[in-house]
């Protein structure tokens, strides 16, 4: 009797291990990403980083900062990573463009961390891409200056980048309801860099104003996030207060979300040309260089975002 029982238990244990092994094998590996951000200006970069850190589908390998006082932005990003207990993620600043006062960066005044590297953003990007050629996704939620500099200084890297996912551009709609296409900030702030990135032949997944401009994080959803009083929720609340405006528009989190759930948007292949003034024009009759998000359900997105950050 004992032998039969032991045999049965062994069979059950074996089946359990088999099923568990198959489930693990079926689960996709996290997507390795490098996040390039101008965190500290608008608040949506901080909300985007919080989404990355709360998404097991993403493997954050590094953070780089772009535009203006990149060192202050790097301190801010590094402190958010510290608060989230992700002190393993290196942070590097892009080319310094002037030490202007950026309100949110006051939260990280005087902060230091071994994760803050002296190497440049371009060299950190290159290092991470070379460590895993063909698999790194660059997630760009600021001007494209760092990525263009990477491609100019190390042109061989473009063959090793899996994809660029970016928040930027405007196809049929602008910042305000009923407004037509406009020069969106991330693209227009360095139009020459944007032209170089779109012409590089790297696959691009693009979240323009068409799908981001109506993504308001209303007071009800903000309060649910802030009232968690976790270290990250308290950090977001502190940055929100320093930002000093009422309602965040979650432009940048949509770009991150396209990696997590592409079904949040309708995507269309397009050939996008960037003008000298930073307009992103779809050109008919040419091979697509981007998959562009053109429609979304704002209420569905806000529910998705809140549930992800709250869990």
How many β-strands, per DSSP?
10
What gyration radius follows from the Cα positions, in whole Å?
Answer: 21 Å
Indicate the multimeric state. Answer: single chain
CATH top-level class: Alpha Beta
The shape is globular
CATH homolog superfamily: Ribonucleoside hydrolase-like
Strand count, sense and closure of the main sheet?
8 strands, mixed
CATH architecture assignment name: Alpha-Beta Complex
- Which fold does the CATH topology refer to? Inosine-uridine Nucleoside N-ribohydrolase, Chain A
Provide keyphrases for this structure.
alpha/beta; two-stranded antiparallel sheet; 311 residues; single chain; 8-stranded mixed beta sheet; globular; Inosine-uridine Nucleoside N-ribohydrolase, Chain A
Structure description:
The protein has 12 helices and 10 strands. The chain is of the alpha/beta class. It has a single domain, classed as Inosine-uridine Nucleoside N-ribohydrolase, Chain A (Alpha-Beta Complex). The strands form 2 sheets. It has an 8-stranded mixed sheet, with helices on both faces. Strands 8-9 form a two-stranded antiparallel ribbon. Helix 9 packs parallel to helix 12 (298-310). The chain is globular.
Quick take:
This protein is 41% helix and 16% strand. The protein has twelve helices and ten strands.
């Amino acid at each position: 009797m004992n032998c039969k029982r032991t045999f049965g238990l062994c069979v059950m244990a074996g089946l359990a291990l088999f099923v568990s092994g198959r489930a693990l094998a079926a689960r996709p590996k996290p997507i390795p990403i490098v996040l390039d951000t101008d965190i500290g200006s608008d608040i949506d970069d901080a909300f985007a980083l919080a989404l990355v850190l709360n998404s097991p589908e993403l493997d954050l390998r590094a953070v780089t900062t772009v535009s203006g006082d990149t060192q202050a932005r790097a301190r801010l990003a590094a402190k958010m990573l510290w608060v989230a207990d992700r002190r393993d993620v290196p942070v590097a600043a892009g080319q310094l463009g002037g030490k202007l006062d950026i309100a949110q960066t006051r939260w990280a005044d005087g902060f230091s961390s071994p994760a803050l590297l002296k190497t440049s953003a371009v060299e950190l990007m290159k290092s991470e891409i070379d460590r895993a050629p063909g698999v790194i996704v660059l997630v760009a939620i600021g001007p494209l200056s760092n990525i263009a500099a990477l491609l100019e200084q190390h042109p061989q890297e473009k063959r090793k980048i899996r994809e660029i996912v970016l928040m930027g551009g405007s196809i049929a709609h602008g910042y305000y309801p009923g407004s037509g296409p406009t020069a969106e900030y991330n693209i227009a702030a360095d139009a020459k860099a944007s032209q170089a990135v779109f012409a590089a032949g790297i696959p691009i997944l693009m979240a323009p104003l068409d799908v981001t401009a109506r993504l308001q994080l209303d007071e009800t959803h903000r309060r649910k996030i802030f009232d968690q009083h976790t270290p990250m929720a308290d950090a977001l609340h502190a940055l929100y207060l320093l930002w000093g405006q009422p309602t965040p528009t979650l432009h940048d989190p949509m770009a991150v979300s396209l990696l997590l759930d592409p079904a949040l948007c309708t995507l269309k292949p397009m050939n996008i040309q960037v003008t000298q003034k930073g307009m992103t024009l779809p050109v008919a009759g040419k091979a697509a260089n981007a998959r562009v998000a053109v429609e979304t359900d704002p209420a569905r997105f806000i529910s998705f975002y809140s549930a992800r950050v709250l869990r």
